[in-house]
Amino acid sequence: MEIYIFYFFSLLAVVGGVMLVTFRNPVSSALSMVLSFVGMAGLFIGLNAYFVGIIQILVYAGAIMVLFIFIIMLLDLNDETKIRFKSSTVIAGVIIPLMLVIQVLGVIQMGPEDDSFTPITREVLAAAAESEALAGQEKIREILTHPTSPQLPDTNLIGMTIFRDFNFPLQVMGILLLVATIGVVVLSKRSSKSSKS
Amino acid sequence: MDTTLLIATAIKIGAFLGLTLTFVSICVIFERRFSAMIQDRVGPNRTGIPLTILGFKKDFALPIGGLTQPMADGLKFILKEDFTPSYVRKAFFWLAPCMTMVPALITMAVIPFGSPMEIGEHIIPLAVADLSVGPLFIFAIASLSVYGITLAGWSSNSKYPFFGGVRSCAQMISYEIALGLSLIPVLMYFGDLNLGHIVEDQVKNGWLLLPLWNEGGFIIGSGYWGQEGLLLRWLLMIPLVITFFIFTTSIFAETNRTPFDLPECETELVGGYHTEYSSMKFALFFLGEYAAMIIGSALIVTLFFGGWSIGFGIDGLLPTGAWWVSLIHLGCFLTKVTIFILFFVLVRWTVPRFRYDQLMDLGWIVFFEAALINIFLMALLMAAPSIGILGTLFGATILIVATIILVSIAKSVTKPSSVRSV
């Protein structure tokens, strides 16, 4: 059962990606990218990473792609009927995915053996709640050993990792994003004033 | 996969989908009758089978008043001519109504409709998917419904629908931010994103906005006052009430209902993004709007008003897991949702529409800042017991100064548009 769901969402992601490249109409391309994102989110959720999967939809499909479509519609782009591939773009299009494939292969090589997989059951969660690492984390233990529906509190765990263990990198990244945002506002303001005068 | 769970899930999907769709039709009749009451009209109070068009002498009036009006409305929509203008972009024109309707229906998967039911040795939660990211799931899927409206506007290939689609897109993106930020204090309070767990917490400790009972008992008993952190719990009501206000208003904006229905503003845009739609395709937009409204009410009820819990300590007296208890809780949940739907209808027919710049100012300048300050207020109050008086005072000073600065900036931005130097 699980394997079919995995194949379904993989197919969705791959088909979405292929359609993104092959469609002529920019809006169709953008929508197939949304399809691809939804497929990816499904894969994440299949790996019990609910938070990552949902954020995938919320941020990419729900916000970023909406802005893309917004812009495409406002610019009123016509169908790109004649696409001439330059040799440089083709070479880049081959090399970059190749690098990614090599990286993925490396990760797969380093990964754990197949038989180390354990499905998440009530007992596994209860055992995890007793582990040393969660000492003093009453809320997380409570979720892990909830009487009616014990669950993996992935959001709480991600929050703990980011905000406690990697707090400084997070702050730095936040400042970087803030600088980028302010930069965008400044640039767009300046151009509108100069166009008026 | 366990067969019992599989069958139970299939039944739950069917039942809750049916329930939501039934509620949509109930909403329609509520809307029509309630608006009639507000405007001192009668409203649709009779429906019947028009036998006269078949050659009979008299129409047959159904004896249950106007209750079958939604059925007549639905029949009308199906029987109308489904006209597709020749200049539209066909594929997207067909896709758009589905993309508004489907997300609204998917989001009901995480709403806990009742207390968990015990069948044999299984404990079955009365939510289709008892996810550990409940509210986030709703936001994520609901944010996909922007596509439907935007595509409807664009694919119609005509001026006014396009304006409607663009307006709606901008409005929904803007209010999603306020919606997400305003919810953070609630999530901080519960420390858990599973809606089922959130409701069970409220059964024990009082509804979020009505903490009149806790594990010690009801407010009039002495056990209630003996509980720890009672003062803090009541202090937390300040940020939580602010959250409730921002959240509810943002839900109004997200569902495109008056006073935020600028995307379908008749006076400016003919009919908005669905101007070119007719028959069942138009009805799907309609259904999507109502379904989103129901899910919004259900989310408000689940987070702030105890979801399926009867409240006032009565839930503790009932046996847990019995099927009839679950059904009572289901009824309780639906009653609360109905009350909120009536509130939605009341607001729609009493509050006039915003102007578009007012709407954007409200979202970006008022709600965004208020929600941010609210998060820090909540954090300060929650941290107060552990950081001591000095730390709390220090934090409070910073918060007050930051608030004053923000408010002054916001005031300088929201001057009347004639004064503003753009």
List the helices and strands and how they pair.
The complex is a heterodimer of chains A (197) and B (422).
Chain A: H1 2-22, H2 26-46, H3 50-75, H4 87-110, H5 122-129, H6 138-144, H7 154-165, H8 167-196
Helix pairs in contact in A: 1-2, 2-3, 5-6
Chain B: H1 3-38, E1 48-49, E2 60-61, H2 69-79, H3 90-106, E3 117-119, E4 122-124, H4 134-155, H5 159-190, H6 195-205, E5 213-214, E6 217-218, H7 222-225, H8 230-235, H9 237-254, H10 266-269, H11 279-304, H12 323-350, H13 356-413
Antiparallel strand pairs in B: 1-2, 3-4, 5-6
Helix pairs in contact in B: 1-11, 1-12, 2-11, 3-4, 3-11, 4-5, 5-9, 5-13, 9-11, 9-13, 11-12
Got a strand count of chain A? 0
In sequence order, what are the helices and strands of chain A, one letter per element? HHHHHHHH
Give the total of beta strands of chain B.
6
The portion of residues assigned to helices of chain B is 55-70%
Oligomeric state of the chains?
heterodimer
Catalogue the unreliable spans of chain A.
Answer: none
Descriptive notes:
The complex is a heterodimer of chains A (197) and B (422). Chain A has helices at residues 2-22, 26-46, 50-75, 87-110, 122-129, 138-144, 154-165, 167-196. Chain A has 197 residues and is mainly α. Among the domains of chain A are: 1-80, Four Helix Bundle (Hemerythrin (Met), subunit A); 119-151, no CATH class. In chain A, helix 2 (26-46) runs antiparallel to helix 3 and helix 5 packs antiparallel against helix 6. Chain A is globular and about 60 Å long. Chain B is mainly α. Chain B has one domain (3-42, 68-356). In chain B, the strands form 3 sheets. A two-stranded antiparallel ribbon of chain B has the order 1-2. Chain B is globular. The relative contact order of chain B is 0.13. Chain A binds chain B through residues 1-2, 27-28, 31, 34, 50-51, 54-55, 57-58, 61-63, 66-67, 69-70, 73-74, 139, 142-143, 146, 148-149, 151-156, and chain B through 1, 91-92, 116, 123, 125, 130-133, 136-137, 139-141, 143-144, 146-147, 150-151, 154, 162, 165-166, 169-170, 173, 176, 191-194, 196-197, 200.
